[in-house]
Design a protein that fits this description.
3 domains, 8 helices, 7-stranded mixed sheet, alpha/beta, 4-stranded antiparallel sheet, Rossmann fold, 37% helix, 248 residues
Length: 248
């Protein structure tokens, strides 16, 4: 039995459990076309099994916009969905102030000036953010685009930037996955949390974990998580281990 297996079996004993999971690179392998991403069947089955257990909440905590996350994940209640790095909860729409809407319009125009015409770079618009994607672009193009955005539109006063794997998100509100974990824990009265993530944006969640929680990093890279697995296939196995232990 590995140290992670032991930690999961201990976690399964807590009275009220929150299981929070990133989607891309965790439940679903990373793909070139984000719209084609789908959870691995075994992981999806384990998620639904956990969500059906008493005193157990499963939440998808993703950088995707809420509607996009709902579409690609295929999950519905009782699985909770939290999009835009914690900026959108499925129990309430994100409301912007007039000043934030004006800033988003200014940001959108500035980003378009940088990105338009750059091969394989694309923009995504979220309720409170503009996102630059460069996955699939030539390395020189990707770096040129990201550098221009970092030193240009991302510097607008009031813009919060979050950089991930081949993506740079600029929001007009302050959000983080760590803050979302705190909100979910408080709302649910969770005694412990499992969080599984793969990207640098997930580190804000790992750093918010407390004694008795379990954090699992998927893949390579520096991390504050205590445990690590190699790939989404391994996430399927750990979720099945947790489900079996909590079911029993």
């Amino acid at each position: 039995m590995t140290a992670l297996d032991s930690a999961l079996r201990e976690l399964a004993r807590v009275p009220t459990l929150l299981v929070a999971l990133d989607f891309d690179g965790v439940l679903a392998p990373l793909v070139q076309d984000p719209s084609s991403s789908r959870p691995l069947p075994g992981s999806a089955a384990a998620v639904r099994g956990l969500a059906d257990l008493p005193a157990t909440t499963v939440a998808m905590l993703s950088g995707r916009g809420l509607d996009d996350l709902r579409t690609v994940s295929g999950f519905t209640a009782p699985v909770r969905l939290v999009g835009s790095h914690g900026g959108e909860f499925d129990d309430g729409a994100l409301e912007l102030t007039d000043a934030q809407r004006d800033l988003k319009d200014q940001l959108s125009a500035a980003v378009r000036q940088v990105v338009d015409g750059e091969p394989a770079a694309r923009l995504e618009y979220k309720p409170a953010a503009v996102v630059v994607h460069v996955r699939g672009a030539e390395p020189a193009v990707a770096e040129r685009v990201l550098d221009a955005v970092r030193t240009g539109p991302a510097q607008l006063p009031g813009v919060e930037s979050t950089e991930g794997k081949a993506v740079l998100e600029m929001a007009v509100v302050q959000v983080s996955k760590g803050a979302a974990i705190d909100t979910l824990r408080s709302r649910l009265g969770a005694d412990a949390v499992l969080f599984v993530g793969d990207d640098v944006t997930d580190e804000t969640a790992f750093t918010r974990l407390r004694p008795g929680d379990v954090g699992v990093k998927v893949g390579d890279g520096d991390t504050a998580a205590e445990y690590r697995v190699g790939a989404p296939d391994d996430v399927t196995e750990l979720l099945e281990t947790l489900l079996t232990a909590r079911w029993g």
